[in-house]
Design goal:
There is one protein chain. The protein has 224 residues and is an alpha+beta fold. It has one domain: Galactose-binding domain-like (Jelly Rolls). It is 14% helix and 32% strand. It has three helices and eleven strands, in the order H-E-E-E-E-E-E-E-E-E-E-E-H-H. The strands form two sheets. Strands 1, 3, 4, 6, 9 and 11 form a six-stranded mixed β-sheet that branches. Strands 2-5-10-7-8 form a five-stranded antiparallel β-sheet, with no helix packed on it. Strand 7 and strand 8 form a beta hairpin. The radius of gyration is 19 Å and the shape is globular. The two termini are 17 Å apart. 33% of the residues are buried.
């Protein structure tokens, strides 16, 4: 990985990379603050148009939920009480802090997992979105439903965004969204967990960012 990036720098070519946004998410697996149920995860915000709420909880303390955290001990939840096809949503979101902001042409990927608990089984619609700058097409989105999920099972997804020219230096905002029940009125809950990047992946990302911010000369000397 380092050698390829260094060769690109030597050739004067732009170093395009697939970058994990999970590396920049604060509290990605909702471990802070430590709670049983329920609290609100540090680093996140909530909002939307529905009657809703969100937070973090430890599913191992609620056997009836039939759910175990995918990463760490806790997960994030989003409740939407507005019912079927209302068009109203509730979300957890945060704006990330990438050094120097996004680079047009790179691919920024968020990996996440979704589950529904056994004791709140009603199917819900969900989406996960990456927003760039304020242009009409500067976003990426994945949409799904928990309707086919077995209770207590995690389903993994990813959403990727390639910044446009006017996204240069801009910080992306990520949204985890509960769009409400698939059928009927009442509560629908969607549970989210974001995998924490492996240390090796973070190390490679660090080498990449270093190469883009002025260490090209050092990499050239290593290749000499």
């Amino acid at each position: 990985m380092k050698r390829i990036l260094a060769l690109l720098l030597l050739a004067g070519l732009p170093a395009v990379a697939d970058i994990s946004l999970n590396s920049y998410v604060l509290n990605p697996s909702f471990e802070v603050p430590v709670t049983i149920c329920c609290n609100f995860p540090s680093g996140w915000f909530q909002g939307g148009t529905a009657q809703g709420d969100a937070g973090n909880w430890n599913p191992s303390d609620f056997p009836a939920a039939g759910l175990v955290a995918l990463s760490g001990q806790q997960v994030g939840y989003i409740n939407n009480y507005s019912g079927e096809s209302s068009g109203d949503y509730w979300s957890l979101f945060q704006t990330l802090s990438i050094p120097s902001g996004m680079v047009p042409g790179n691919v920024y990927t968020l990996t996440y997992a979704v589950a529904r608990r056994a004791d709140i089984p009603d199917a819900a619609g969900f989406r996960v979105q990456i927003n760039g700058s304020n242009c009409p097409t500067c976003y990426a989105i994945t949409i799904g439903s928990t309707g086919s999920y077995g209770p207590g099972t995690w389903h993994s997804y990813s959403v990727s965004y390639t910044p446009q020219t006017n996204d240069a230096g801009f910080q992306p905002t990520i949204y985890l969204v509960n769009d409400g029940r698939i059928a009927g009125p009442g509560l629908a809950q969607v549970d989210f967990d974001l995998p924490v990047p492996e240390p090796a992946a973070i190390l490679l990302l660090g080498f990449y960012l270093a190469g883009l911010t002025g260490l090209g000369g050092a990499l050239r000397r290593r290749l000499a």
